[in-house]
Amino acid sequence: MNHIVRQAAGSKSLAAPLIALALFLSPATQALALSDDVIKQRIEEQVAQEIELGAATVRIEVGDGFVVLSGRVRLYAHKLIFEKIAWHTRGVEDVDNEIRVIPLAPLDDEAIERKIREIIKAHSRFHGSGAKIRVENGAVFISATFQHPRDDLFLKQSVAEIEGVIAIEIDPMFVAQIGL
């Protein structure tokens, strides 16, 4: 075996890549790959640690590292937490978040828009953003100019906590900052 490995390493033939592929496909290497059951279990364990997700009825399905989340939650923020947990779980290749938001006591569109304006007013990071807000049947659409890329994520997280928001789409523009 050493002779074969030395020869493959010394030559520029296809032997070295073939040996590497054989080692990669060996049963020992395959055992290191995470099974779908292990991925599902890890997601479920992380979800169980999130107290606010206790009332959610979400089904987690995993196939070839592809995760499908379905079911329902009370707040859009909960939907985002499920998705974040799935994406941050080792072995996950892709996530399809089909979770529906079903609020217990939803605010109407006008009340949702007022809450969003309160959030923007309360945080100086959004002053001068020129935010345009539209709410249709609980779906929120915002276009604004932000100083920092994290500002749109902060706004999305804040809006996601409003009872009655079922979807959020933010169209961000960013102010270019030139270092002196």
Ordered list of secondary-structure elements with their pairings:
Layout: H1 2-10, H2 15-24, H3 27-32, H4 36-48, E1 57-63, E2 66-73, H5 76-87, E3 94-101, H6 109-122, E4 132-136, E5 139-146, H7 149-160, E6 167-174
Parallel strand pairs: 2-3, 5-6
Antiparallel strand pairs: 1-2, 4-5
Helix pairs in contact: 5-7
Question: Could you characterize what this model shows?
Answer:
By secondary structure, the chain is α/β, with parallel strands linked by helices. Helices cover 42% and strands 24% of the residues. The chain has three domains: 1-32, no CATH class; 34-101, Histidine-containing Protein, Chain: A; 109-174, 2-Layer Sandwich (Histidine-containing Protein, Chain: A), CATH 3.30.1340. It contains seven helices and six strands, in the order H-H-H-H-E-E-H-E-H-E-E-H-E. The longest helix has 14 residues, at 109-122. The protein is globular and about 50 Å long. The N and C termini lie far apart (61 Å). Mean pLDDT is 85; it is low at 1-11 and 26-32.
